[in-house]
Amino acid sequence: MPSKAKQTPMMVQYQEIKDQYPDAFLFYRIGDFYELFNDDAIKGSQLLELTLTSRSHSASAENQIPMCGVPHRAAQNYVDILVDKGYKVAICEQVEDPKLAEGMVKREVIQLVTPGTQTDTGIGGAKRNNYLTALTKITTGYGFAYADLSTGELKVASLKNFEAVINEVMSLQTKEIVVDKSVTDDERQHLSQIGILVSHQDDVTAQSELSYLTQDVSDAAQNAVLKHLLTYVVTTQKRSLAHLQRAVVYQPSYFLKMDHYSQRNLELTQNIRTGKKSGTLLWLLDETRTAMGGRLLKQWLDRPLVTRDEIMARQRKVGALVKQYFERHNLQEELTKVYDLERLAGRVAFGSVNGRDLIQLKTSLNQIPKVQHVLGEFEDGTFDDILDNLDPNDDVADAIEQAIVEDPPISVTEGGIIKDGYNDQLDQYREAMHNGKQWLAEMEASERKATGINNLKIGYNRVFGYYIEVTKVNLSKLPEGRYERKQTLTNAERFTTPELKEKERLILEAEEKSTDLEYQLFVKLREMVKKNIQRIQTLAHAVAELDVLQSFADVSEKYRFVAPTLTKDGHQLRVIEGRHPVVEKVLGRQKYVPNDILMDDKTTILLITGPNMSGKSTYMRQLALTVILAQMGCFVPAKSATMPIFDQIFTRIGAADDLISGESTFMVEMKEANEALENASANSLILFDEIGRGTATYDGMALAQAIIEFVHNRVHAKTLFSTHYHELTVLEDSLSELKNVHVGAVEKNGELVFLHQMQDGPADKSYGIHVAKLAGLPDSLLTRADQILTRLETKDEQDKPIVAATSSETQFDTSDTDSPDTMAVSSEQTSVSETPKTDSVQAPAAFDDGEDTQLSLFGTPEPTKKHTEADQLLKQLKELNLMALTPMEVMNQVYKWQQHAKRK
Ligand code: ADP
Ligand code: MG
């Protein structure tokens, strides 16, 4: 960088401004362009595919600096591209008229556009919120707040730990989080790693004009994080925030808790493979007719309810809408014509609203009486709470109706917006313009006659004003001195006359005054609407709610859902002929086989066995989706359903089956299983799908069994546990709350046919070889596999797992329930070189294959020769007191063994 002294005044100004926004692209306005300089230009030209040029910034020509530019009219596009990519853009305008400026034109940043504050989210963005989040840390936890600047929504919560923070930011799909010094480097890094832009805002300035937003918030930490968020918003936006709604305190515990992993895994709003909406529960449920309804549906899906009364209040409305088909249909028709009231309100506040937006607002408001009318057709009381908030805002609609023409232009500064007859002065200007133009037409006609030039015409352009145009061929017909020459074109000459000049002055003056006045009238109307923003927002929310409820009803009817019965107490679960609605929709109704899910008060675990690809995972997800639908207030895909209200859902998919995270390892799988074991209550739902499959057979099976026992004896959550270890099915004999079910399959002519049907009892085989056959593996290989299988099966008796630990004779130390430090592994227990502790309460009988323990998987004939190494390992295994260890400890032990074995 050359010294400042040498720089041009403009570059000095540029640098001063750039220094205030080091982490943003600075769009520096020069005339009709925004220019980027230096590093901004180099990076920007790549990201935006612009030509990189250079500019001399000093007197000497050799010092060139890189630059690139975009025309200001097209700037929005470029800003959006950068912001969508996670960057910030500072828009720097000329804030005084260059003609009047003395020296350098004054420039200021008028807005900092960031991923979380972007309000024009473009096509497809209407049904999504764009949330800006904020985080601060206090000794007891975290203050967390979020806002959507386009709709004005503002929420705040206290969160216990960082895990909860991650869950919130993932489920809100925030693109930007504002933090202060209290948030550690590690935490910031974690947030950036999951793709969130971390913005720093350390000073908090009092925003007195926004203090009403926080008046319902008493908690100090929540207040602090809100101030923090608002300071950031004010400093970046520099524009009216009148549409921000009073902060609402929420607590994640008011809702059915699902971590983001479960949300993704169940494909609630995002398809695992494509990341898109298609193929998700949201996709199935979305029959909303308005953008507001679309966004609210997603919010409800992210946060199903846990309070029976609230759920039933929604369910009753859905029931009424299902029953009254014609009214529902009418309601949909009326809602279709309601525009995005929330975002219109936002634009009013920002002052970015135009004539067309106001017409949309009016049209929407005019729909409300029709909506009220339809709701009147329902039984009294059904929709009272919604009707209370359906205020058509007549005064606002009338004011717009009177002022704005039906089809206004996009621009608000070029006239043509205000109706005739609305304002006397405006009418007079328009009259003058009209008369002037009339006069011009008459002049044109009379001049043609006088000169005999039939194509003589009177025209207008911005630079030269009004002119009389005569083509060159006809010039000879023109009497010398009739007009004054004004401009020469290739084929024509343009002229004027003193009269024409005078008319021009009058017309242009009237035009200018008229557009000025129109703009003033428009702004006045806008301010009037602005005063009513809160009423419009209340209305918007009521409309959104109604829209989601009709969508539920629509879907419930279309896919034959029923109203679930939610029990007040007890843990009975009875889903008759339940379906996975999304799989059913994709496969087609004919192909989908419905299934019952039956768990009485005393059953906590369903152990699901069955061949690969038979429908185990689908069955488990089916239950989770049914629970989520029920607790959202929607009907459920079944013939009938009775269920308790769940507090949390955990889903863990075995690493081998985990489609989501390529990086998923067995360790991750175990950590996540542990998360469920630690946090689930007796009112939770756990889905463990082939857990333990990510490791070798025996340790996987050992872990699976230990986990089942732990859930059975300690957690008592309703649990669906699918496994390909059919050996585990014997647990039913010893664990009273466990029930076996399996997916039926039949072999026909050596081929396997899946019935996709759940049946009581254990599966007899794992059918893996048949699946391999279907997949077309070579015959010789399959024959060999069959041989090995037969050999293994003759050992079947010994392979059965050990007798399970039951609650009466539990081996788990129940005294440490409050400190579930299951991750901690005591070193003396796991060191392979030492002899493990030999409490030998119960010698583990499983895995004990006797002397000829080496299975000849790879063709070595039995008996095998003994390896002292293997013997030692086996001895340790035998002596290991499995029941005294937590799953994590077992896992660590097995891991050490494996490491040890690999070194050999
Ligand atoms: P698993 O977990 O047992 O390997 P999945 O649940 O992944 O099996 O199901 C495999 C496939 O079987 C699914 O993709 C789906 O196409 C089909 N399927 C599953 N359940 C059913 C059902 N109830 N009716 C019809 N097809 C089903
Ligand atoms: Mg599966």
Automatic annotation (TrEMBL):
<comment type="function">
    <text>This protein is involved in the repair of mismatches in DNA. It is possible that it carries out the mismatch recognition step. This protein has a weak ATPase activity.</text>
</comment>
<dbReference type="InterPro" id="IPR007861">
    <property type="entry name" value="DNA_mismatch_repair_MutS_clamp"/>
</dbReference>
<feature type="compositionally biased region" description="Polar residues">
    <location>
        <begin position="824"/>
        <end position="841"/>
    </location>
</feature>
<feature type="region of interest" description="Disordered">
    <location>
        <begin position="799"/>
        <end position="866"/>
    </location>
</feature>
<keyword id="KW-0227">DNA damage</keyword>
<dbReference type="Pfam" id="PF00488">
    <property type="entry name" value="MutS_V"/>
</dbReference>
<dbReference type="Pfam" id="PF01624">
    <property type="entry name" value="MutS_I"/>
</dbReference>
<dbReference type="GO" id="GO:0140664">
    <property type="term" value="F:ATP-dependent DNA damage sensor activity"/>
</dbReference>
<dbReference type="GO" id="GO:0005829">
    <property type="term" value="C:cytosol"/>
</dbReference>
<dbReference type="InterPro" id="IPR036678">
    <property type="entry name" value="MutS_con_dom_sf"/>
</dbReference>
<feature type="compositionally biased region" description="Polar residues">
    <location>
        <begin position="805"/>
        <end position="814"/>
    </location>
</feature>
<keyword id="KW-0234">DNA repair</keyword>
<protein>
    <recommendedName>
        <fullName>DNA mismatch repair protein MutS</fullName>
    </recommendedName>
</protein>
<keyword id="KW-0067">ATP-binding</keyword>
<dbReference type="InterPro" id="IPR007860">
    <property type="entry name" value="DNA_mmatch_repair_MutS_con_dom"/>
</dbReference>
<comment type="similarity">
    <text>Belongs to the DNA mismatch repair MutS family.</text>
</comment>
<dbReference type="GO" id="GO:0006298">
    <property type="term" value="P:mismatch repair"/>
</dbReference>
<dbReference type="InterPro" id="IPR027417">
    <property type="entry name" value="P-loop_NTPase"/>
</dbReference>
<dbReference type="GO" id="GO:0005524">
    <property type="term" value="F:ATP binding"/>
</dbReference>
<keyword id="KW-0547">Nucleotide-binding</keyword>
<dbReference type="GO" id="GO:0003684">
    <property type="term" value="F:damaged DNA binding"/>
</dbReference>
<dbReference type="InterPro" id="IPR045076">
    <property type="entry name" value="MutS"/>
</dbReference>
<dbReference type="GO" id="GO:0030983">
    <property type="term" value="F:mismatched DNA binding"/>
</dbReference>
<dbReference type="Pfam" id="PF05190">
    <property type="entry name" value="MutS_IV"/>
</dbReference>
<dbReference type="InterPro" id="IPR007696">
    <property type="entry name" value="DNA_mismatch_repair_MutS_core"/>
</dbReference>
<dbReference type="InterPro" id="IPR017261">
    <property type="entry name" value="DNA_mismatch_repair_MutS/MSH"/>
</dbReference>
<feature type="binding site">
    <location>
        <begin position="610"/>
        <end position="617"/>
    </location>
    <ligand>
        <name>ATP</name>
    </ligand>
</feature>
<dbReference type="InterPro" id="IPR007695">
    <property type="entry name" value="DNA_mismatch_repair_MutS-lik_N"/>
</dbReference>
<dbReference type="InterPro" id="IPR005748">
    <property type="entry name" value="DNA_mismatch_repair_MutS"/>
</dbReference>
<dbReference type="InterPro" id="IPR016151">
    <property type="entry name" value="DNA_mismatch_repair_MutS_N"/>
</dbReference>
<dbReference type="InterPro" id="IPR036187">
    <property type="entry name" value="DNA_mismatch_repair_MutS_sf"/>
</dbReference>
<dbReference type="Pfam" id="PF05188">
    <property type="entry name" value="MutS_II"/>
</dbReference>
<feature type="domain" description="DNA mismatch repair proteins mutS family">
    <location>
        <begin position="684"/>
        <end position="700"/>
    </location>
</feature>
<dbReference type="InterPro" id="IPR000432">
    <property type="entry name" value="DNA_mismatch_repair_MutS_C"/>
</dbReference>
<dbReference type="Pfam" id="PF05192">
    <property type="entry name" value="MutS_III"/>
</dbReference>
<keyword id="KW-0238">DNA-binding</keyword>
